[in-house]
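Notebook B, p. 112. Complex prediction, attempt 2.
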Amino acid sequence: MRSIGNKDSDCTRWAIFVPLKENLMSSRPVRVRFAPSPTGALHMGGVRTALYNYLFAKQHGGKFLLRIEDTDQTRFVPGAEEYILEALAWCGISPDEGQGVGGPHAPYRQSERKPMYRQYADQLIAAGNAYYAFDTPEDLELVRERAKAAGNPNWQYNSITRTAMKNSMTLPAEDVERRLAAGEPYVIRVKLPRNEEVKFQDRIRGWVSVNTLNLDDKVLLKGDGMPTYHLANVVDDRLMEISHVIRGEEWLPSAPLHILLYRFFGWEAPEFAHLPLLLRPDGNGKLSKRDGDRLGFPVFPLHWVSPETGEVSSGYRERGFLPEAFANMLAFLGWNPGDNRELFSLAELVEAFNLDKVHKAGARFDFEKAKWFNQQFLRALPAAELAQKVAADLTRRGVAVPAPHVLEGACSLLLDRAVFPQDVYENGPYLFHAPHGYDPDMMGKKWTDTSAEHLRVLAQRFATVEPFAAEALESNFKSYLAESGQGFGQLGPVLRLAITGVTVGPSVFETMGLLGKTESLERIESICRAH
RNA sequence: GGCCCGUUCGUCUAGCGGUUCAGGACAUCUCCCUUUCACGGAGAAGAUCACGGGUUCGAAUCCCGUACGGGUCACCA
């Protein structure tokens, strides 16, 4: 691979004519990755990171990879990886390459790549950019405690303190050899320069600069031989030819370390983009896994039951969200196209997305807006698809699913007041079965001594209406009102109560038309008998 | 606490030096439509662009401070 950003005279001359960024973009095929850790359910912030990666890749005709970062074996949670795969699939942002789909750089699970990292750590040691450290966890804990007692709450293993620790920088070479040969446990730490400004250009934040004085000698290879995130992520991104690292802002503080590692390896670093965080709607802090159901909305794409605690968390899918609505909503938490458009299919998002227009500040999540997105998508759904979703909901409730034309009719009648598929039943149970009761409040207000009498006459008249459809029913009803000298407000609500049990909802005549003559007349008779 | 990042209506945001005493969406309120609810339509209210200094003929837009918020400081990612 030819590196572009170098300081040979050719490139300098070049840069006069070609902006650097364009230059980089055209020289490298876009390959991005989403690299979650399977420590539990993937939360919506993670899904958004995956989404942005996916959109960016697709827009540039590149590849979107999924890599599982499971180097911490103590945090393994069964089912988590499957959950991640399923969640991404549900959102429609499946990887082109990676865990679950395979590809030229397999394996994509870091635990299975374990043997590969060692040589890179050795390479760093050989070049003097890393060293062995024999301090036990207990040693470190002790040092930290002492430092804390002495007024330093944040002891770091760095260019100063490492001189007082047990490592290959302080121990005699023979001693190090002996310990290594004896199989004494050790870690490999990066050896950071003492006082150096590390600068890099973040795609979203511009130039970010940190002095190594504030960084520490992070562990690269752990005592169990596994790499830490810092080593694994840099090595894998290099091996997998990742062109852009798009990840959450929580990684920003360690980005300078990663930049340094690329430099130590002599590799060209990918371009970085650190995404703003998703903040909780109430109070302070980032949206966390624990915030979900407590605040009345899901934080996970799919329903999740923790295998350790048995704790159940609700998911957007089960809540009735449409995947494209969920993706649209998520995309707009931190990004927008710059005009006033808000509704985008996934394909349209791919078209419109622009990493440079991602907002810098964290976005506070608003469930009301999320519902609005779903409502918009629900209304745009083809009738048959909506009917299918509603049928599934009815089945879950143990309610008989009506004939297709009736089901679709019910859907179209209730669509305007539904945000989720299940709202069709919740707002109009009477379309699927006779009312289980009558709104007592409205009965008190509208039902009179003569109501039953009028309804029975109406029923007789309705019986003659053929076909039994809204228009004819309504004119029939109105002519009866005129003949009996009543206003709509007197009999209308009563008729509605008879048919639906409540006084709100779509046109009562449309409802009767859908229910059919037999059912409608039966309901009228029922309320009369009962009162 | 150190370091890093951020700060435009309640919320998500547009804005990238002048046509903006700041536009859209959600939420809120009013009216119309519907003799119901919702949808839809029209409108209202809502941001002295965190604050203070600069730079400039001119700043929400550039620079510097301050405040506030967030992130991060593990043999976790």
